[in-house]
Amino acid sequence: MPARRAELVRPSRARRLLLVLLALVLVAAAGVTTVVLVNSGSESPPPGLSVFAVPEPVLPDLAVPEPVLADDAGNEPIPDPAALAAILAPTLADPRLGGRLLASVVDVVDGQVLFEASGAQSGTPASNAKLLTAFAALSTLDPGDRLSTSVVAGSTAGEIVLVGGGDATLSRTAPSLSYPGAPTVADLAQQVLGNADTEITGIVVDSSLYTGPSISPLWRTGDAPSTYAAPVTATMVDGGRISPGSRSRSGTPALDAGAALAAALGRPDLPVVAGLAPPEAALLALVESAPISRLVETMLALSDNVLAESLARHVALARGQSADFTGGAIAVTDAVAAAGLDTTGLTVVDGSGLSADNAVPPRLLTDLLRAVAAEDGNLDLVAISSGLPVAGYDGTLVDRYEGGPTVGAGSVRAKSGTLDGVNTLAGYVVTAEGRVLAFALIADQLPPGGQLIGGEPVLDAFAGVLASCGCR
Length: 472
Hints:
elongated, 5-stranded mixed sheet, 2 domains, alpha+beta, 10 strands, 5-stranded antiparallel sheet
């Protein structure tokens, strides 16, 4: 990886909070119409939404924006812990939680603990584990770095080798139907045709960047391939989907990538096999992903398990660990600890949160969210807050607060999580008086036989209480 930037412009407290939550506040205040990002991760997308091409964004050059918040931002009234506990009591007693809710609520500016329910006790995070992966990726890798996919000459005449660099977003279509800014197989094919000096007779797919099993032994049977996960390989197209825009993932994503290249070359009949690129092979083509920061945003917004596992492996490589489930888990844990966060009670076994063996205290998640928003913190981490869905408007929270109280819609920006018996929610909320809070909720003992998302309305109600709270 290139050397990290030596200097960052540190924004004032007002600017820092602006960078973290400006989009949320604008949505809450103006009720703006947003483009819906259809979830392709573990949480199901709302019915009736169709998958569409993600347009290539036209963005201005990055810069620290001029402040639009008051200079005294962060001086809004803080909810009183006793008053907050009293108003939350009915929510905590809701039987849909199964009698257990782990919770942490803190003030983003000064870190004051405003509410806790076994906040130091570990619970199953489900997709809230992606917050750890995102934090590790942005604090270990340069957010501007990109992942590459290349084609090199093979060991025999006419053979070419598709070399995976861990970019799961490589797309069969232009633009991608799933990932903003994704490179295309067509671009690779055009470069190959321009640089190859012999007729192409076969394609080898080299996915050796990643090691170990492609499916975690700690995942449930049927987790991969499925509609939310695929075997984790260094060479993929469309996040391992069987076809562009599909929700179903393939059991052979690496070979599918080779077949996609063959089709783009106009030779769908070419044989495709797994293998290794020869040493010092001539480069025929190379494409690059969107920046790491964009991949993190997409991973969080859509709860994309494939992207999460890919990012965890790149964190592992950067931190000298093996590019597999074990190495990724060690590297993510090390990155979180290296940032000074208390990892007591933390168990990481994958990058996506698909395994029920992951364990995280909610207090660690609120500490992490505070670090993202810290006045003197790492500005690279802002992609975490910008990637969090806004409740009632986009990503995996697009359908939240429907058919009930809507006080949290537009005021809550958070990552959801869902496994059998587990619903989680962690992120930021703006109170009625403008104070920014970080919260983490883990309900991991939901009543058996209930709906997969049976606890979600309760978690939404909890966040809604925070949003409506003056609580003084």
